[in-house]
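Good day; I would like, with your permission, to put a structural problem before you. The record follows directly beneath this note:
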Amino acid sequence: PLNAARLFTSALSEKNADDEMSPLIDHLGSSLNAVEGLLEGLLEISRLDAGVMEPQLSDFTLETLLRELDLEFTAIARDLNIDFGMVSTGAIVHSDPKLLRRILQNFISNALRYTSSGRVLLGCRRRGDHHLEIQVWDTGQGISENKIEEIFIEFKQLKNNPDPEHKEQGLGLGLAIVERICRLLGHELSVKSTPGKGSMFSVILPLGQEKIAVPPEIITADRPNILPLDFSTLKVLCIDNDPDILTGMDILLSNWGCEIICCRGQADMGHMPDGFTPDIILADYHLDHAQNGIDLLTMLQSRWGGAIPGIVISADHTEDVKNQAMTAGYKFLRKPVKSAALRALISSLLIYRK
């Protein structure tokens, strides 16, 4: 249901609504973001508490991760009139790059949320011969010492947002997730704060071995940087067993100028127009009658006698479905699908195909 709502909202937004409708669409999008964030946060906490999340530890160059975070947050900070800085490092660390990125994202998001003016700084310091401390400093409101333990409790929010009318309030889950991830990784979590002056959140982790360090590929793998193509001649086959999602996809892709055919599964494909050959196929993973999108995509390749690019879409937040899709040669998107991510991924597939 959230995926369908996201598609409808994206379609409305891209219709160039008038001045009266635009604020309503923006508020609807913000509400969906909040619901999506809540569900993802609760899912992440439940997986951490259940012990089903296994860290993928490796030695990697920290600079790659820090530069990605710098790119992600510089524009956000600029919109808030806050100076965001990152200090480069040559350090190699031993951790799970994906989970470490999650920790630092939460640190920086909180720093920006509770800083009305001044600066947020991301950097690191060596701690002895074997450890590194990654720090996020801010010039925000600060936290009283007797309140520091409370910020790691689920849904606990201190009433110290300096600009509640114009800054996203958050859900009170981010630092609870950080605490659990640090515990899972065996990393030390630290907070220092002075009310009225600012705070420093940090994570202390082991240094890695230089001779086996590699850049963490996952940092940029899902962020295609491709200019959008003209979609006016694009033929798309969309497969999903949820009629609301098909309707949302139909409206969204039609707005882009695509010719789209929607099917609920293999049984519906007999109704496709003669001569229709898709340029790309979007397939939900979980279909009716024990079908899955990966198997159906593979079957359809032989139907049209060529390698048609495919994107597998799923609400499954484990790595299992994603890995299956990638192994089979397809791209992967998680629900709820964001229109910008979908358009960028389609563009990248078509460019590489050419």
